[in-house]
Every structure is written in structure tokens, then in C-alpha cells.
Design a protein that fits this description.
The protein starts with 17 loop residues before the first helix and ends in an 8-residue tail after the last helix. A four-stranded parallel sheet has the order 5-4-6-7, sandwiched between helices. A three-stranded antiparallel sheet has the order 1-2-3. A two-stranded antiparallel ribbon has the order 8-9. The chain has a single domain, classed as P-loop containing nucleotide triphosphate hydrolases (Rossmann fold, 3-Layer(aba) Sandwich), CATH 3.40.50.300. The chain is built from 16 helices and nine strands.
């Protein structure tokens, strides 16, 4: 039996029947469709139509069983490599701006955004500190249909960010390639990763299904879900920052605007600033006890259109074709 079935950092004490929950996880690992090709950490397993690493899957099962959303909770939702780190930093700074605009107290100067805004399916049920004091902020890579029932049924709010699939793929390939290169001494072949991504076999993929789930939900529940595009946020940061602040219940006052609070948060959370902070150049983020990633890996370029440096014209056309087919009739486009 695989080692990860025996080595877990998750806490099952709150489960009604801990042994039964563990048994369910092991049974999924034993029987679920499996892909061993390209993840940096271990194999991927298909659950509820999406691909997960076993530790994320274990946390997902615990979250689905145990997590009780509060009306005040704000959950930042995304597929991997779509602007998650930036969204975490912006939202955390908006909701904690008295601290974040004070250099002597600013948590973002001392901790990565992933430590300030924990993952629902990663941090909450592990034996480690899991929420910034009094913060209602959480994050998740789960698809909309895999969210705990309490999230969907409660009055908590969701913010979803998506990105052009071509840039998502390139960023994901670099991220996983960098981790594997450190561990195994080689960069995962672009062509192989591309084929897997197009087939939907990537972390929390199929990517298009992930996006569509939240897009359709945002149309049905516009007061509950704010749907953002990374490209729009890059192009009109000030506009969307104010829209985000309004949505999460922390709008900027007229006096704050006059004093430059919006611009200060934009500068604080900019790629150029965050990537140069000592904590993000030298620190590490322990996703799990067995998976530790250098913080610098979360800050590669952050550019729109970086796919042009990696993909051939044929690759570009293939992803665009899949995107057009998948999104047809939905009203959603990536321009």
C-alpha cells in the first residue's frame, strides 16, 4: 500500500466516525481513476470529476464533512496558478488595512500571502495554526460542486479569479517543473504537460470545467459570488480593487481615497513589491509536512500573455479551440 495512506498530518478528531472517514479516503485512493504522469508531489486521483493530489483530496473529504461556514466568511476560490497569491494579498490588505498600511505591523512583510490566508482543504484540519487572528478569510482550489454544503448554503461570500488558459498552463508547468527540478534534477517536458492539461488531467483540472462551475454559479448568485478575471484585474487594478473592497464589506471611504489608501494597497501587493520582500525571496511554505515549497516559486512573472514565450502557434490554436468549445453559449470569453 502507498506510503501516503499511512503518513497523514490531518486531524480526524472532530469526525463523527474518524475510522470510517479514513476508510473512505483509502477506498477512494484504491479505486479512483489515477494519473501518475506530471504532478510534482505524487499521483493525481479523480474525485467528483476533478484531479487532486492525495493530501488535497484527504483535506477535501474532511472539509466536506466538518467545515461549517460562518456568514462573515470570505472564501477566495481559484484553480492553481490563476492569480491566487495576488488575490490573497489584495483581499487580506483590504480587510486588514489598518495593519497593512503600517510598516511596523504589516503581516505581509513577515509572512507569505498563503500563510495569511489559509486553504480550506489544506490548513484548517492539520495540526498547525490555521487562521490569522479574527480573520474571516479562507481560500480554496476546490471546484464549486465540491465545496462543503455549508459554504453553498450559508450567507458567506465567494470571490473567484480565473485567467487565460494558455497563461494558466505555462505558469503551472513552470511551477511544477521548478519543484520537480529541485527534487529530481530535471524540468518536466513541456509537450507532455501540455497534452495532459488539454486532456484535463492537471491539478484541480479540467481547468475549463473549474471556471465554468463558478461562472454559472456567479450568474445564479451574483450577491454571493464575485467573478474576476486576472487580465481585468491587471488592466484596471484600481477599479477592481474598489469593487472587491465593496463586495467583501470593506469599502474605501472618501477620506481613505484622498489619503491614497487604494494606491498604497496596489503598490504593497504589486508583483514587483511582493516578489522583492525578504520573506518571499528566502522563506518557505509548508503545504503539508512532506511538501515544502520555496516562497519564491509563487512569484515567477505575473505577466499577461507570457504564454507567447513558450507555446507554438499550434499549441495556442489547440487551447483556444478547447476554450471556445467548452465556453460556447456560456457568455464567458477570454479575450
Amino acid at each position: 500500500m502507498n506510503a501516503f495512506l499511512h503518513e497523514s498530518s490531518f486531524n480526524y478528531e472532530r469526525c463523527c466516525d474518524p475510522e470510517n472517514t479514513k476508510k473512505k479516503f483509502k477506498e477512494i485512493i484504491r479505486t479512483a481513476p489515477r494519473n501518475s504522469d506530471w504532478t510534482a508531489f505524487t499521483d493525481l486521483f479523480q474525485y467528483e470529476g476533478f484531479w487532486h493530489s492525495p493530501r488535497f483530496l484527504e483535506g477535501t473529504l474532511l472539509a466536506q464533512e466538518l467545515f461549517q461556514a460562518r456568514p462573515c466568511d470570505i472564501i477566495l476560490c481559484s484553480a492553481p496558478k490563476t492569480g491566487t497569491t495576488w488575490l490573497k494579498a489584495l483581499t487580506f490588505a483590504i480587510m486588514n488595512r489598518a495593519l497593512c498600511l503600517d510598516d511596523s505591523k504589516n503581516p505581509l512583510l513577515l509572512a507569505t500571502p498563503h500563510e495569511c490566508v489559509p486553504y480550506l482543504e489544506v490548513d484548517i484540519f492539520q495540526n498547525k495554526p490555521n487562521r490569522y487572528p479574527d480573520s474571516p478569510l479562507l481560500a480554496t482550489h476546490l471546484s464549486f460542486d465540491s465545496l462543503p454544503n455549508s459554504v453553498v448554503d450559508s450567507d458567506c461570500k465567494l470571490v473567484y479569479i480565473c485567467r487565460d488558459p494558455k497563461d494558466v498552463f505555462v505558469s503551472l508547468w513552470h511551477f511544477i517543473g521548478n519543484v520537480r527540478a529541485k527534487e529530481e534534477g530535471y524540468l518536466f517536458p513541456l509537450e507532455k504537460a501540455f497534452e495532459l492539461f488539454c486532456q484535463g488531467a492537471s491539478l484541480n483540472g479540467p481547468y475549463w470545467d473549474h471556471v465554468l462551475g463558478y461562472w454559472k454559479a456567479s450568474l445564479e448568485f451574483p450577491k454571493k459570488i464575485l467573478f474576476l478575471k486576472y487580465e481585468d484585474l491587471k488592466r484596471e487594478t484600481e477599479f477592481y480593487l474598489e469593487r472587491l473592497a465593496e463586495f467583501v464589506g470593506h469599502p474605501f471611504s472618501a477620506s481613505e481615497r484622498r489619503e491614497g489608501a487604494v494606491e498604497k494597497i496596489m503598490q504593497l501587493c504589486s508583483f514587483q513589491n511582493l516578489s522583492k520582500l525578504e520573506v518571499n525571496k528566502t522563506g518557505e511554505y509548508a503545504i503539508f509536512s512532506s511538501v515544502v515549497v520555496e516562497n519564491s516559486k509563487y512569484f515567477r512573472k505575473g505577466e499577461v500573455g507570457d504564454w507567447k514565450n513558450c507555446l507554438t502557434g499550434e499549441m495556442k490554436d489547440r487551447i483556444d479551440g478547447i476554450t471556445e468549445e467548452k465556453l460556447r453559449g456560456s457568455g464567458l470569453t477570454f479575450d
